[in-house]
Design goal:
The structure is a single chain. The protein has about 400 residues and is an alpha/beta fold. It folds into 3 domains: about 1-145, Rossmann fold; about 150-315, no CATH class; about 315-390, Orthogonal Bundle (Rna Polymerase Sigma Factor, Chain: A). Helix content is about 50%, strand content about 15%. It has helices at about 10-25, 40-50, 60-70, 80-85, 105-115, 125-140, 150-155, 185, 190-195, 205-210, 215-225, 265-275, 285-290, 305-315, 320-335, 340-355, 365-385; strands at about 1-5, 30-35, 55, 75-80, 95, 115-120, 145, 165-175, 235-240, 245-250, 255-260. The strands form 2 sheets. A 7-stranded parallel sheet has the order 4-3-2-1-5-6-7, sandwiched between helices. A 4-stranded mixed sheet has the order 9-8-10-11, covered by helices on one side. Helix 1 packs across helix 12 and helix 6 packs parallel to helix 11 (about 215-225). The radius of gyration is 21 Å and the shape is globular. About 45% of the residues are buried. The model has no long low-confidence stretch (mean pLDDT about 95). Bound molecules: magnesium ion.
């Protein structure tokens, strides 16, 4: 029986993970859960799965959660200390990180240092500090498993293979809701439009990142660290059907792809049951009903996020952390109606090009670069808005 902590259990990945775990009740035991603000759902999950501890975002939420969970003997903690407590819990074998954004860095590092296997849905920590996390994982003899569909596909294609025999990793991207739109039309994209993804139901941040293709760019940096290959060996192709989740090309010209119906429960279960494969509730792939597969090049002019991620990956050091932080601020401001859709990439580009990078940073230098980039992004946005006369 594997004992699991889920960080971010009320989000889309967290809910799918609990669904996987319910489907395999004699394989797993839930030790801890965490949620930011969705206390009602967290309490419901906790009463069902009976972890020993849950963590919530703040004291206000904790009071509600205590009222609900104390009768069941479930402890309630809060904030970053609570998350660290969960990610280092002595009873946990595996920490599933389904947090959103840079907030996941601290708990990931703590989990690695405590010797826990970490399944990562939260790509930002690897983008910010991939070199550090991979090095610490090696030092502590800890496995870092990808949980997102594309890096999981690469992982599955690479099973039993030798990395020096790999020529290229090929990440597929659905292309998002604005694939094929003209730049002119893209200027007026609203948050509501950006939040309507054609294939996947996900949280707001990653859905906007998918629409700008920034998500795919962050996956390039994530894959760079997970599989120890330079970003120049990682390609992106647009595959609208989201059936081929990624591919690996080997030096002999052979290409191996991983396919399935688009359903997050498959890559989640793969990370949870690895190295075993067990039956899932995922709809089987019917090749005869699929019709056609299409593959197209991404457009880096209309989706500059992808180009910026390649640039940050090439620069390494603190550059990926800076790009990631600028993007978190810009996406937030886009969702708040403060900047337009195309401004997200413009902010990211300006912050990245103003950055004086530090090579091979330690964790403090990464966090300092992250803070600097957030301040810089806010300054760029203020200046943009001062310049624009019609902005509601
Ligand atoms: Mg993905």
């Amino acid at each position: 029986m594997k004992r699991i902590v889920i960080l971010g259990s009320t989000g889309s990945i967290g809910r799918n993970s609990l669904d996987v775990i319910e489907g395999l009740p004699d394989q797993f035991q839930i030790v801890g859960l965490s949620a930011g603000r969705n206390i009602d759902l967290l309490c419901e999950q906790a009463i069902r799965h009976r972890p020993s501890v849950v963590c919530v975002g703040d004291e206000e939420g904790a009071e509600v959660a205590r009222g609900c969970l104390t009768p069941f003997g479930i402890q309630v903690t809060t904030g970053p200390e609570g998350l660290t407590g969960l990610s280092t819990h002595p009873d946990a074998d595996l920490v599933l990180n389904a947090l959103v954004g840079s907030v996941g860095l601290g708990p990931t590092l703590s989990a690695i240092r405590a010797g826990k296997t970490v399944a990562m849905a939260n790509k930002e920590p690897l983008v910010m500090a991939g070199g550090i996390l991979v090095r610490e994982a090696r030092q502590h003899g800890v496995d870092l498993f990808p949980l997102d569909s594309e890096p999981s596909a690469l992982w599955q294609c690479l099973k039993g293979e030798r990395i020096h025999e790999v020529k290229r990793l090929i990440l597929t991207a659905s292309g998002g809701p604005f694939f094929g739109w003209s730049l002119d039309r893209m200027k007026d994209i609203s948050p509501e439009q950006a939040l309507n993804h054609p294939t996947w139901r996900m949280g707001q941040k990653i859905t906007v990142d998918s629409a700008t293709l920034m998500n795919k760019g962050l996956e390039i940096i994530e894959a760079r660290w997970l599989f120890d290959l330079p970003a120049s060996c990682i390609d992106v192709v647009i595959h609208r059907q989201s059936i081929v989740h990624s591919l690996v090309e080997f030096v002999d010209g052979s290409v191996i792809a991983q396919m399935s119906c688009p359903d997050m429960r498959l890559p989640i279960q793969h990370a949870l049951t690895y190295p075993d494969r067990l039956p899932t509730r995922v709809e089987p792939l019917n090749l005869l009903r699929l019709g056609q597969f299409t593959f197209e090049p991404p457009d880096m002019e209309r989706f500059p996020g992808l180009r910026l991620c390649y640039e940050a990956a090439r620069l390494e050091g603190t550059a990926p952390a800076v790009l990631n932080a600028a993007n978190e601020v810009a996406v937030n401001q886009f969702l708040n109606g403060q900047i337009g859709f195309l401004d997200v990439a413009a902010v990211n580009e300006e912050v990245l090009s103003a950055h004086q990078g530090t090579p091979e940073p330690n964790i403090e230098e990464v966090l300092e670069a992250d803070r600097w980039a957030r301040g810089e992004a806010v300054r760029v946005i203020h200046r943009m808005n001062g310049r624009t006369t019609v902005r509601v």
